Protein 1
Amino acid sequence: MSDSFNVERYQAAPLYDLNSAKAVRYGRDGWLVRVQGPESIARIPIEGISFEGKYTVPKRYLRIISDTVQFNIINVVDVKNQNICTLEKVGNEWLVRSMNPVTSGRHKPPHAQETPTGLFVVQEHKSKMFYYEDGTKTYAGFAPYATRFTAGAYIHGVPVNNPNGSIIEYSESLGTIPKSHMCVRNASSHAQFVYKRSKDLASLVVVID
């Protein structure tokens, strides 16, 4: 199920109209918002930064980030051209720290979907992100140096189709066409670079097309 903005209900937050208290759309996991009211009430007024509009959202869906946090690392993923660029703010300048080919998500229901576009906050790191065989609960392998930015979407290294296998550095598919389930696949050394530089709740991922 998805809303009129093509945001699926799964792993999303309901956003309510300010006046009618009616849920009118879904907010993607990892979207950045500005809190507009007290944090003590059940539904908190917000204004979108990753999206347009003002709504209220149940408090349990929010992770409050201190207003002293500065987002000095931004990873820009270009799903049209299948590449990634990591930027770092130093003083008043944004510096390019890396550029690499990637493989983003493809549309192949029910198990694979496109990498969603937009602005997201880095939320979680896993040195090994284990994954199942499609449609099962059997581990098929792992992806190294995984940095999660929304729902099941990670920036990670080349998948290893063996839970006990060794890290693979490169895949010939990088920089070609979307082939992932939703994630952004990198050369494993570059995934490690992103993994080390991008701090939880203090770095951003911007996906463009």
Protein 2
Amino acid sequence: PKSHIYDLDLKRYRAAGLQFRHTDNINFWLKSLKAIKLPLTFHPETTDVYDKKNMPRVIYCIHALSSHLFKLGKTPQIQDLYGKVTFTDEEITVMSSELQKYGVQLPAFQKIGGLLATDLPGDTAALHAAVIAVNHAVDSEDQEALLKSLQNRSVRLNFILEEYLECYAKTLKTAKAAKVEAAMNRSLNDSYVADVYDDLLTQAEIQGHINSVNVSQKWNEVLDIAAQHDSDKMAAVLASPCLQLSDVERDNGSWYEEMLRKLVDSGKWIEYEESSEWRKVMQHIVSEGNTSAELYQKKTSAVKTVNQQLACGSVLGLLEALRSPCLEIDPELLTTFAAPLYWDEMVADRLDCGRDLTLTDIKTSVGVLSQIAHLTSAIDSGNHENIWTALMNLSALLRFEGLEPGLQTQYCSGLMACRSYKLLEDVDCTILNSADIQDCINLVNAKYEENNRVVSCLQKLNTAVRDRSP
């Protein structure tokens, strides 16, 4: 993990150069080479890296690591840049001097594939003969012979799928042609030393290309299945042994399909050219799909618990169920003060709709009921400004009828009186509910209208009396 990497931001290195603790990072790297089972032949020493004692050996290790990981289908194959990158005579002279200074020689990079094959346990001679047979079958373009040679146990190849034989043939032929061309370029150099694997694909390279074809073909199948909306087939393809994906759950096919659809809609998958990247994408789809499925199951269980409490639980039991992190309800909303209101209103809602409440129902109810409880808290504070603010916020949700800004003082006084009256009632929940609040608004409005009528009558009476005066 990154947390174990010393001087990750390179601040100490830039300030004071290499320090002994930097060897921790080198040792972690060497341990990772053992973990992925790179043959010990290619492992450098710590001092080869830290003291630059033998950097050619380090680079040799990186090349071998690339070939090994390509064989495992984890990375793209490292490119042969011979003839594509040129160095000046001065650069070559400087490098030669450095190599002589440390008494090291450049290793034969082209022999890595053969050495990787030699390190495999078992009959090495039979392995090399089987690898040569595969190369001959590639050259002959005889697909039947190619299939037979690939399935030969001596060649020790995995995940040979007959339905992809044509793709294997094309891919291996292209790869072999590129290798032959590179060997011809190197043969023009006076220092060139011929090797049997200069123009033959090694066992590691063959396996790497087989893996590459398998992944690319499975990726295309996954895209086709997503268009067909076949979740069972989606899970089956992702569970294919040749993909070597971990934690594929057959029951989560619909979630994998959803994750893939999001990826396709984003267009990001188009950026990937290497099959190793597609494999990472498919593993990401599986991992994210599993996470979504698990979260959905937890949410479903949490919703079920809430409904069980509403059916035969208690006020505090309901509050505890609502506080489940899986419901993703803001904990600050869920107060003990508001719990009786949650209970009364949500029990009634569940009975009215004749079914269990959904997650959306629950979250919507809690949001509104918490605002109602907040209004009651403001009423208890006796502060008219707080009461009016809470009432206006609640009205934005419930759209109370007849709410007149000019009657702010009357509404606040009315709500306080209503709250006092309800506290005297023999009820479990003394918090004002939405019906209580609307009734209070209606009562204030009616009283205001009645007062207006009385005032109007008095004004008319006064006018009549005044008109009759001498």
